[in-house]
TrEMBL record:
Lineage, highest ranks first: Bacteria, Bacillati, Bacillota, Bacilli, Bacillales
Record-given protein name: DUF4367 domain-containing protein
Signal peptide feature range: 1-22
UniProt keywords, alphabetically: Signal
Domain of life: Bacteria
Length: 276
């Protein structure tokens, strides 16, 4: 389904590059039906992309600058660049919104299955969060005809304004895509991240085989969890997937933000947070 494919493409950008020596042990997570919901792969298996021309590189460079400079927090927009754009392409981009009030963050999530607690085990209290909503075209993709119409309109607007680009607001859906909440205890920090994979969605991450990490699979409260220890920074992350009765899946990550937060402490946090 298109909704799922779009999510896979986004998840595939979680490419890790580093230097090291030992090959990585890759793991998968499955649901109760035996379906794969999370998988790790070698970066060499990343889907091949068309070679980028110099013209396209220049167009994307301008588009990304417009994204950074013109699109505000919590906003989404279609971006059209006039130069280096013979095929009249548009890019649709969105930004997360920082939310420092926990009640506001919870109200924006609008999903009672996602718990963003006041405090994590070990006296880590909520400090700040961010949320990014799905764009409406993530759920109902634009047709080629619609994209062509938008490109033509934005081209005319850019020419009329004398600028190299034009933008158009894009509606956001009423469904969260990604939520991050940061918890602090003094100078120590832990991140809780949730990605909405949608109905029957899967998450694939790609790794450079030389990345300095060790991995193992745990069972916490009867839930499969992948533990990753980052050797260069002495940090730890835990990844798992929760599936709702309607088939919607949420990918969770608990990660240390400070090397003084131990592996055992992070696992204790997960034991108190994870529900079967």
């Amino acid at each position: 389904m298109k909704y799922k494919v779009g999510l896979l493409a986004l998840a595939g950008m979680l490419l890790t590059a580093s230097t090291g020596f030992a090959a990585i042990q890759y793991y998968t997570l499955q649901n109760e039906k035996g379906e794969t919901v999370y998988e790790e792969k070698n970066a060499q298996d990343f889907p091949e992309r068309p070679q980028v021309t110099e013209e396209e590189y220049k167009r994307v460079h301008i588009s990304n600058k417009v994204w950074t400079d013109e699109i505000g927090p919590g906003e989404a927009a279609a971006i059209y660049v006039v130069p280096h754009n013979p095929d009249q392409k548009i890019d649709i981009r969105a930004n997360p919104l920082d939310v420092n009030n926990l009640a506001d963050l919870r109200s924006m999530i609008k999903d009672p299955s996602v718990t963003i607690p006041d405090e994590l085990t070990g006296s880590y209290t909520f400090e700040t969060g961010s949320i990014q909503m799905f764009m409406q075209n993530d759920i109902t993709p634009l047709t080629e005809e619609e994209r062509t119409t938008i490109a033509k309109q934005l081209h005319e607007e850019a020419v009329a304004s004398g600028k190299d680009y034009a933008t158009m607001p894009v509606p956001l859906a009423d469904t969260f895509w990604r939520v991050t909440s940061t918890y602090k205890k003094g100078d120590l920090g832990v991140d809780l991240r949730v990605v909405n994979l949608g109905p029957d969605g899967t998450l694939t991450t790609y790794w450079n085989d030389e990345t300095q990490v060790t991995k193992k699979k745990l069972n916490i409260n009867q839930v499969e969890v992948i533990q990753t220890n980052w050797l260069s920074s002495n940090s730890v992350s835990l990844d798992w997937v929760a599936e709702l009765p309607d088939g919607t899946r949420h990918a969770y990550t608990l990660a240390t933000l400070d090397q003084q937060v131990t592996e055992d402490e992070l696992i204790q946090i997960a034991e108190a947070y994870i529900r079967k």
